[in-house]
Amino acid sequence: MADMRALSAAEITGLQNNTYDGIQLLGYYLASDTPDPIIYYPSTTTATDNGGSVIVIGTITLEHNFNSEIDVRYFGAFPNVTALDEINTTETPSDNVTNKIQNALDLGGNVFLPKGRYYINFNQGLWINKDNTHFIGEDGATLVYGSKTISSTGYYSKSLNVFKGDDQTISNITIANISFENRALNWVNQDDQFYHQLSVIGGQNITIKKCKFFGFLGDAITLSAIKQGDSDKNRHYENTNIDIHDNVIDGRNNENRNGISVISGENINIYNNVFLNCTRPNMPGAIDIEPNEATWHRCQNINIFNNYFKNIGGNIGIISFYFGWAENAPYLLNPSNFQVYNNTIQKGDKSSSGYVFNWQGDSVKSMNTNSPSSNILFRDNYAESGVARGPFRITRARNIDIVNNTFGGGYTTSAILGFNKQQQLPDNTWINVYNPESGVYNTNIISNRFERSAANDTALRLMYCHYTKVQENTFIDSASNYSIAIQVFANIDNLNISRNRSFNISQTTNYFIFYNPALEGIVDINTVLIGNNTVPIQATNITPRVNTPVSFLTKDGDYSDKGTLGDFSLNTPTTQTADNLVTAWSKLRVKLGDYNNNSKWANVQLVKYANNATLPTNGVLGEMLFNNSIGRPVWYNGAGEWVNITPDATPNLKGIVKASAPSSDSAIAPSANYIQSEMQGILTELRDLKTKLRAAGLLTT
Fold it and tell me: What does pTM read for this prediction?
């Protein structure tokens, strides 16, 4: 290339007058150091000299059109780093490998990076800014970046940026088989969290696969929604259809932010990746889904599956979803549709001070059954002993399934559904109170295994949850306290705890459900169903809120004549087998008398009844009872009427009918030849049958 740039005036003239068709370049620095010789032809292009496809020599421009793959060696980019401690920090523009790789990327198309280690100026970074660019590395192709500073624009550079420009979207990008490497540095200040290795801003149809990320300070990969330093929070950089798979993400020393951050993204698949040594104690976790303070940020349809995690730090969650910024800027599009499944999490020297799985939903001030659906699925994940503070914490969400997960031991706190908050009293002490903003609706916690979970706490703590099923879970050596706790100041309704198994709970009282009486508090509980569990079930010191209907409360396990008229209680079986399994099922009973008589506990009859004379004149819409006068159940329609639950039959509707009265066989046996009296007998019998079918309601006309 140096020889070509040194063409003589006569040679340039020969190119201009077509004496020569072009110039064949045998190598960039030496013959054969590029894959093949290439030919440059005189060109009228106005493109600037890029050292590869366009070369300007005096008054002539030469051009080579790369029709297929672009090898960066044709632009003079060759490996220039042999070891991390030999990073070239004195390069000049003429030997700047960053510029030369960038010139190849600027053409778009298929760009090939041969094996070797290439120094990337971190304050400059590489940029993919053309659609349909596929940056593919040979095995061993590594981008190594060095020192960092904040640019004059306040923009924190990244090693590789996928970004087209202000308010534009870049599409159809592939980054594959490239390693990103840095020294295992320590943070100097909080700004270090913004030095990412790969940043996507406004990308569509992006694939990042089979890459390796080592020693990042910020994120290995960040799907951003705003250019760092940009004060305009209303810019729309939307990331959609992103696949991140089969990568190795190794922070080396846990001195970094997250392995992957999603600030805004739809249709994101993160799978078959390995996460190692990620996250400082003051950052979220290995994967963090966390929109910033902008109303248009969106996180929807995100799938995280078949990943492996080891030695993960952080303080929110190994897999974290945090939407707390919505308090200041409610999102226009509700975060929804998240699946986390088949992931494996193992311990190392570090463990998260957060949770295995943490969801803090959008800040809807008053969660209810009509709140937007979160649609969360967390299933078939395995978390080894001691990987985090607790199994999971979920607040501000609706429609959650936590199914068939295994949570190993070593947790210091409970799995939490809903969350309370602390309130300071006049004497400067603090108490826990329930937090209406943290409500959780429609949750299924089914077929999970809690093994040696929460050694110093309860395995599962219920605080502010509605329409919850806790079924078919197994608690093994699950707690030094209790397997399941209804928390101080809990607010719970429609809770179903059934068919769970517990083994070797440490407490001698062997309580399965426990309301902590350490502080005087009020528990607001409606409609709690507990049954068919294989340990004694008990709750103590529960005081229903004034004017709150309580349809199911358990009391002390003394089933003698003690009790007050109308008390509810569970009959706790005492027959046990090995491992303290209870062989009999629990039964709900009601006290028929008080302390002063000998009335017994009786099984509860849950169906009310009345007759025509005693039907309530003002029922509750949908209320049902059995009407003895008509022998069928009825419901109140809200308009002053009790309506049959099963209606009378009509030609178009199945319903209740009477048994027909007997209809005798009155017609005489016919002879070989019918006579008039025989026909008349058949008609008489048919008319009798029709009359009785009408009376029974089987025939309408």
Answer: 0.75
